[in-house]
Amino acid sequence: MLRLVVFFALWATPSLADFQKIGDKKAFLDALEGRALSIGIFSLQINLVPDGAIQGSAVGWGITGNWDWKDGLFCREMDWSGYTIDYDCQLVETNGSQMRFTSDDGKGASANFNLR
């Protein structure tokens, strides 16, 4: 079940609005200020704390982890109630109401999160 939810979260449907790349940590934090990342269908909500902590939940289970910014990419490692989500650096783009994260240095699967 966990793998299924993670799979669908990684393949969230993209928005038709134009996305712009976020290339530095300050712009990333400015875009997130006071907002959380969410995907409603999975009851997924993630808060990325400026100090590098990740806090949240998905389908009722807690998410914790750490993030940093390296070479223009968002890099993170997480734990979802005992399920390890390996370290990965991701391309980040936004259209103002959503953020898109593309795994494997921008070459992998993408997930769109609503900014709430």
Our count of helices gives 3
Strand adjacency order, main sheet: 2-3-4-5-6-7-8-9
Record field, number of beta strands? 9
From the alpha-carbon coordinates, what is the Rg to the nearest angstrom? 13 Å
As a percent range, the share of strand residues is over 45%
Work out the count of structural domains: 1
Structural class computed from helices and strand pairing: alpha+beta
Describe the structure in your own words.
With 116 residues, the protein is α+β, with helices and mostly antiparallel strands. It has one domain: Lipocalin (Beta Barrel). 18% of the residues lie in helices and 50% in strands. The protein contains three helices and nine strands, in the order H-E-H-E-E-E-E-E-E-E-H-E. The chain has an eight-stranded antiparallel beta barrel. Strand 7 and strand 8 form a beta hairpin. It is globular and about 30 Å long. The termini are far apart.
